[in-house]
Amino acid sequence: MINKKLHVNGVDIALVDEGEGDPVLLLHGFPDSHHLWRNQIPALVDAGYRVIAPDLRGFGESSKPQEIEAYSLRTIINDLVALTQALDIQKAHVVGHDWGAAVAWMYAFLMPRRVDHLAVLSVGHPATSISPSLEQREKSWYMLYYQFPGISEQLLRRNGWRLFKQIIGGEGDHARYLRELAKPGALTAGLNWYRANRSPAAELEPQGNFPPVLAPTLGIWSSGDKALTEEGMAESGRHVKGPWRYERIEDASHWIPLDAPEKVNELILGFLGTQEPAGATRRRRRL
Description:
By secondary structure, this protein is of the alpha/beta class. The chain has helices spanning 41-46, 73-86, 99-110, 134-139, 141-145, 151-168, 174-181, 186-197, 230-234, 256-259, 261-271, and strands at 4-8, 11-18, 23-27, 50-54, 92-97, 115-121, 217-224, 244-253. Pfam families: Abhydrolase_1.
């Protein structure tokens, strides 16, 4: 589906750019690519939106720097600013999942004038993870396992990717992930997202106050998420100054866009273009 590649912020970013109308920026996480959004892209285009779905740096057909520092969230934000500028986009709806949600939150509160509506799947506002609960720490055990350059890569690949398969648990595009991560530099690039942003040492660093998110925001969490607790998303509204809406999806794994595509499409399409606060009567656009 990739139909464009741009050189921005020192890397090549491959992307899907389809449709016309108000732009919607779709941001994937680990270990995905734009392919995560294959069920949302046609629905958004058909609804009259321009969809931009990049392979974020380190994934898919985009550049894969091997340095840990190349994956700080601020660097990723700079990628998005440069990318949208290159596409002549001043303001966009932003939708993110997993690491893409973390990027989307940060993009929204650092670049408020560039975000129309914000929809975040699975991952809550970063302020909710400053002091994670023991339950969340238990769910996030794999993040600690990813912190050892060279060693993590060897252990994940060992015995036919046995450990990685156990971590993924047959969810998401599990077979595709193995093919993608086997490409040169791909596994290290993906793990470097965790090393740059979720190392244990990061908890010891002074935590500043996060600016509030001004955009209308939709948070979506799934009951079958093995990696993240509901608390992180449900409490994110405390950090949103604009209208906040929370939706829980039952019987879906962490990979909500793949497991519940029709519901995700309904929620996103019903949310974009509205200013409706969470407590108001919801009138969704007919699909």
